[in-house]
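fwd from M.: "can u put these together and see what the complex looks like"

so here's what she sent:
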Amino acid sequence: DTGVSQNPRHKITKRGQNVTFRCDPISEHNRLYWYRQTLGQGPEFLTYFQNEAQLEKSRLLSDRFSAERPKGSFSTLEIQRTEQGDSAMYLCASSDRGTSEQHLSYEQYFGPGTRLTVT
Amino acid sequence: AQSVAQPEDQVNVAEGNPLTVKCTYSVSGNPYLFWYVQYPNRGLQFLLKYITGDNLVKGSYGFEAEFNKSQTSFHLKKPSALVSDSALYFCAVRDIPNDYKLSFGAGTTVTVRA
């Protein structure tokens, strides 16, 4: 297993276009997270999946953002009608199986990220 | 709501000298605390965590961190820094049992000069 992978690594798009990113978590991990990181800031939480269920969405995730994890394996993050303010690094992370209490102590393993530039 | 502060944007040390990266946190419940390191063009790598028990936690690459509940701090330390430790370091907290997402600080850039 080579860890969390994300594709594409870089995406340049024009304002108003739609983009979709993919995340493949570590295979035995059932929890998956999306974060956004802008220059000079730490990652900010966007959304969280347990298996295929999306359990929480941040207020940062506007109506133009949607995330899915249809079979509880890979996940996609789509941004519709991109704006220049969407330019950021989008990070995906996964964590191991465990009970609802156990998993709170588990670290998250991050992918390399997808850098989005909206022109 | 939980939050993390990393009061220093940058830390510069000479190779072989001790390295300390500061982190303070605020939670309403009990904290689970994490340190991550980010190298250029790479994702965040987990270094260590504090969940419960011994206040001194040892992690990867010779790093350790000390949990201090009274000062609400979780400073990262390395007794003898290497040039290869130059990177961006993030402290993160999970507020137990109120939340499960990680809240990150803004990061501290560490530069170790030869």
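replying to her w this: The mean pLDDT of chain A is 91.
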